[in-house]
Amino acid sequence: MSDHGTVARQHRVTVPSPGCLVALLAPIVAVLIAALVLMVMHHRQERANERNESEALDRTAALARSYARDVMALSPYPPGQETVRAIAERHDGRLTTYARSEGRLATTVRFFAEFEDTTMFGTSYSRAYRCYSIVFREDAAGDPQEKTSRLEKCDAD
Predict the structure, then answer these.
(1) 5 contacts: CB under 8 Å, gap ≥ 6
(2) Percent of the chain scored above 90 by pLDDT?
(3) Which pLDDT value is given to residue 157?
(4) Of 33-37, 86-90, 100-104, 146-150, which gets the smallest average pLDDT?
(5) DSSP character at residue 80
(6) Among the four 19, 60, 66, 108, which has the fewest Cβ within 10 Å?
(7) Which residues pair with 98 in a beta bridge?
């Protein structure tokens, strides 16, 4: 009470206790940490998937080289279409074109390689594919020579 018989109003400034601040900030900090962890995991999975696909595409190039070596090793040269098709299939490839003329054989083969594709929901297997044009011709001595070129456009069907 004041000297005049009235109730004096007191102005108090209240500061929240440290426990109250922690209770308010803890959920916000937890959500931020969870979001950061999810972003880092997603980035790492994407990098791993890109690396897996790149390795699979490198395997297609190795398959094309192996296919070319096997075709060049055949006798009599140049081989028939069914023989070339069988070699392509043995190397995870699909013969798409075959053109044979005097001392020259031109083929286009689509090679496939599988790789793991990981998401937060699990792992699946995807296929990477590339098409190569492989031209075989005999040199002056009658020995087969090959030239392998990767094609830019390649249908996956």
Answers:
(1) none
(2) 46
(3) 59
(4) 100-104
(5) P
(6) 19
(7) 107
- Per residue in 81-125, pLDDT (tens digit) is 999 999 999 998 999 999 988 778 899 999 988 898 888 788 888
Edge to edge, the sheet with strand 144-151 lists 93-101, 104-119, 122-138, 144-151
Task: In whole angstroms, give the CA distance from residue 45 to residue 36.
Answer: 14
* pTM of the complete model: 0.71
End-to-end CA, the chain: 93
What pLDDT, on the 0 to 100 scale, is given for residue 123? 86
Q: Concatenated DSSP letters for 121-134? A: TEEEEEEEEEEEEE
Instruction: Report CA-CA distances (Å) from 15 to 23, 29, 58.
Output: 15, 21, 65
Q: Name the 3-class secondary structure at 25.
A: helix
Cα(135)–Cα(117) distance, integer angstroms = 34
Of the candidates 87, 85, 81, the one whose C-alpha atom is nearest the C-alpha of residue 95 is 85
On the CB side of 25, CA atoms within 13 Å amount to 7
Residue for token digits 């931020």? Answer: 32
